Amino acid sequence: MSKSDLTAVILCGGRGERLRPFTDTLPKTLVPLRGRPILEHIIRYLAAQDITRFILCVGYRAEAIREFVRTFKETGWDIECVDSGDATMTDRLLDARERLSGPMLMCYGDTLANVDVRQLRAEHEKNSALATMTVYPFYSPFGIVNVDSDDHITKFSEKPRLPYWINIGYMFSELCALDLVSRNSDMPEFLIALAASGSLHAFRHEGRHLTINTEKERASAETQIVDFFTVLDHGERRSTANTKSEPTSAETELIDLFAFNQEAF
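Structure (tokenized):
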């Protein structure tokens, strides 16, 4: 597979206080899923889609992430840490900017999604956008009760999908989009400025998505991680069993990635 000119910029500076006791000694992005750090799962998935250059925007317990990076010396991947200390997400992006010479894929270090990066880029370029944010359907965390005008309960819906979308990162961005970032601002201000400029587009992702903010979410993610890495499009399993054609190079790498995650069981 050919290498991409795209650099993945992964925001890894958070403390993850809701993931204690893991984050008493580890940065949030190094919290384990099936024995492997969240960050490792993110990097390996993106590498299977041709990305070989990664900038890790670190802060809390940065040395632990630098030590993690040293384990990847033999991969051929270019991984660099940029330490902003205790800073906002957008200040971390500004600190990473001087290391960038082309477009970036901005990811959150606590979020896994089987986004098809090639399709994301194609949509971004088709729209001539400054940035294209990956969005995911919003599901109610509660059961919904339907009530008619006479206060009769007519229907129960258990945690239904609602007509809204949430930001899950995986934002394809041109370097000049960072011109809209002000020092000491934060991500909402940046995104609002992009939207106001008319240059922020959405890429709708309905495949797999895991965000790990709490121990409950981490435990749930551990049960989903194998299926997560065997899908590319819309949550459907991609398998070469019972087919006559040979897998493409992208499919081969994802099959290899599935085997990698099985090793952690």
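Confidence is low (pLDDT under 50) at residues 231-265. The longest helix spans residues 215-228.
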